[in-house]
Amino acid sequence: MPEPIDVVEALLFASDAPVEAERIQEVLDLESPVAARELVETLRGRLDSENRALQVVEVGGGFRLVTRPEIAPWLVKLARSRTRSRLSRPALETLAIIGYRQPVSRPEVDAIRGVNSEAVLDSLLERRMIRIAGRKESPGRPFLYETTREFLVAFGLRELGDLPKVDGELVVPELAEAAAAQLAEPPSESEEVATAPDSAEQDPGPGGDRVATSG
């Protein structure tokens, strides 16, 4: 019968999303989430001590098994062999506005960007980077949008508080563009696969969810 630590490793490897301590507790029938975290930390220590190509990271409220940053050069070569669909500049700009001001309505996003954002919002909804959080109590009761766990995972964030700090308020297009630029800082070659843009691909392909998030 496999050891609990081996089961945890298999769970993290097989999952396409971060696995919470509570989920590990449920699957392994442990006494508490603390016991689940202890198993994860034991697995993290084992991988580190053996200098394995994989590591455990905590992101988006759960744990993932990802490749180490130093493996990135070989992953870059692999990634270059396939066509990638990155988030566009308008999408990054809209994500920045929602990330910093959520929940936010489309009219508010439109006012900050100065253009109609309906198509961009639809695209981000399809990518599951944002979700509808309700309706605003104002004329027309427009939808309110907020970011999702996929947003945190794609940009390697534990929580929204880890977003880059931006001077001032996002009330004019220039500041929205500045925030988008911080989210879209181009990675170095050694980090190209290990950072957010590749994680936010529309079709990451087999194993794409196990690429390191640079943390």
Descriptive overview:
Residues 171-176, 186-209 and 211-215 have low confidence and may be disordered. With 215 residues, this protein is of the alpha+beta class. It is elongated and about 60 Å long. It is built from 10 helices and 5 strands; from the N terminus they run αααββααβααββααα. It has a 3-stranded antiparallel beta sheet. A two-stranded antiparallel sheet has the order 1-2.
Q: What is the element layout, followed by pairings?
A:
Layout: H1 4-14, H2 21-28, H3 33-49, E1 54-59, E2 62-67, H4 72-79, H5 89-101, E3 104-105, H6 106-113, H7 118-126, E4 130-135, E5 143-147, H8 149-154, H9 173-183, H10 196-199
Antiparallel strand pairs: 1-2, 3-5, 4-5
The averaged pLDDT comes out at: 78
Structural class: alpha+beta
Number of strands: 5
Q: What characteristic shape results from the CA principal axes? A: elongated
State the separation between the terminal residues, measured CA to CA: 33 Å
Bin the strand percentage. Answer: 5-15%
The major pleated sheet works out as: 3 strands, antiparallel
Total of helices = 10
**Rg, alpha carbons:** 19 Å
Task: Give the topology string: H per helix, E per strand.
Answer: HHHEEHHEHHEEHHH
**Percent in helix:** 40-55%
Keywords, please?
215 residues, alpha+beta, 3-stranded antiparallel beta sheet, two-stranded antiparallel ribbon, 10 helices, disordered C terminus
